[in-house]
Design a protein that fits this description.
The longest helix has 12 residues. Strands 4, 5, 6, 8, 9, 13, 19, 22, 23, 24, 25 and 26 form a twelve-stranded mixed sheet that branches. Strands 14, 15, 16, 17, 18 and 27 form a six-stranded antiparallel sheet that branches. A three-stranded antiparallel sheet has the order 7-11-10. The chain has one domain: 3-Layer(bba) Sandwich (YerB-like fold). Strand 20 and strand 21 form a beta hairpin. The chain is globular. The protein is mainly beta.
């Protein structure tokens, strides 16, 4: 028998842990089924000295925007984004565009509207399919110690790849998906989530609602861990229901030059994250050869079910948020507006900072009031409770 010592002053952890261990978690109400418990394209670039030969004149230009050192990274503070600097036009070998969410080069302007898919992360749902095609992946608690993934797709061109298993939605998962202007993809949801979806006339594709034609069940797995879709079907559903398929105003991240060394931060091999239960303990370990972090569940790489390839990311964020248990079912409220403590892992280093979430924007990582750029590539954002404290859920892995 395993015991967890939790101070009485932390009712959130006590309630969620006991619900997870005892199994007394009611399934949430849905219309059909009951679920079980189980900038713009900007990169950091070096200043370019522009010269023109003239017999008597030398023209040079440079400029900068300085951050106010007194600016505190609070909910009301502004994000200071470095001013774009003129650079040489891309050569024939260089791409003309970059993805706003990954900073990776693209031959065409990336204007597809993002798709936000709720992905099942229960042990019976692993390994999942299609997560390596996502630009951004969030992991956050649902109820009973179970975590859910929110995968944001925009730049992927292969629409035939299997994606899932798809699962239900929560109010704070709606917030995450909509921050990227995403069409929300899910199968069922909590009563509060359905209230928001219906009263707000949200643009969504719900398998147990009117969008069932764009999903299928895989008979090799047991329900509810066997619901799949793909981006081609979801884009078809977007067109069928008259949702906007293009969006040129998706909030973009800032990015470093892929070849630039990271001057700031402290050396770290990676990070281990414990949301609540051991079966949801994840790690990200840096590989200097690929300059990517490989995601692990427990001691094994988290791989794609169909390709066998491990899930990787160029950037890993861990942020602390206030969690509150709402009812005896164990449903949660997760505050994604307040901001708070955060860590960013890039290129084998860790940067300590804050996360902020402005209205009509995505969650961003800032240090001393200035947004810290990502490296081009995919990003994983892990949201852990602040109870009993942020550090209790995060263990930085030292270099061996």
């Amino acid at each position: 028998m395993v015991f967890l010592r939790l101070p009485a002053r932390h009712p959130f952890l006590i309630r969620v842990y006991l619900q997870a261990k005892t199994g007394f978690i009611m399934g949430e109400y849905t219309k059909k089924a009951v679920e079980d418990s189980n900038l713009y394209n900007y990169t950091w670039k070096k200043w370019t000295l522009i010269t023109a030969a003239a017999s008597l004149l030398l023209l040079s230009a440079c400029g900068s925007e300085q951050a106010d050192p007194a600016l505190a990274p609070s909910e009301s503070s502004d994000i200071i984004v470095p001013t774009a600097v003129p650079s040489q036009a891309p050569s024939a070998e260089q791409a003309a565009y970059m993805s706003p969410l990954t900073g990776l080069p693209s031959k065409e302007k990336v204007t597809a509207r993002p798709i936000a898919v709720m992905i099942n992360n229960a042990p019976a749902a692993r390994p999942q399919s299609g997560l390596n095609d996502a630009d951004i992946v969030y992991e956050v608690l649902a109820e009973g110690g179970v975590t859910r993934l929110v995968a944001i797709f925009q730049s992927t061109l292969d629409g035939a790849a299997k994606l899932g298993p798809v699962r239900s939605i929560r109010p704070y998962l709606i917030d995450i998906g909509e921050s990227y202007h995403g069409v929300l993809v899910h199968a069922g949801g909590s009563p509060d989530a359905y209230s928001i979806l219906q009263t707000g006339h949200k643009e969504e594709l719900d398998e147990i609602g009117r969008a069932g034609a764009y999903f299928w069940r895989d008979k090799s797995r047991k329900a509810p861990h066997n619901l799949y879709t793909n981006l081609a079907k979801l884009r078809e559903g977007v067109d069928k229901f008259g949702f906007a398929a293009e969006d040129t105003s998706v909030p973009a991240y800032t990015f470093r030059n892929a070849d630039d060394d990271l001057a700031e931060g402290s050396p770290a091999e990676g990070v281990q994250i414990k949301f609540l239960m051991d079966s949801y303990k994840v790690s990200y370990k840096y590989d200097p050869a690929t300059k990517l972090y490989t995601r692990y569940i427990g001691d094994k790489p988290h791989a794609d079910n169909d390709t066998g390839e491990p899930l990787t990311a160029a950037n890993v964020m861990v942020i602390g948020a206030e969690h509150k248990v709402l009812d005896d079912v164990g449903r949660l409220s997760v505050d994604l507006e307040l901001g708070g403590e955060a860590l960013l892992f890039e290129r084998g280093k860790v940067i300590e900072g804050r996360w902020i979430h402005k209205k009509d924007d995505v969650i961003r990582f800032v240090k001393d009031g200035v947004e810290v750029p990502f490296y081009p590539g995919k990003t994983y954002i892990n949201i852990v409770p602040n109870s009993p404290d942020f550090d209790s859920h995060v263990h930085i892995l030292a270099n061996s």
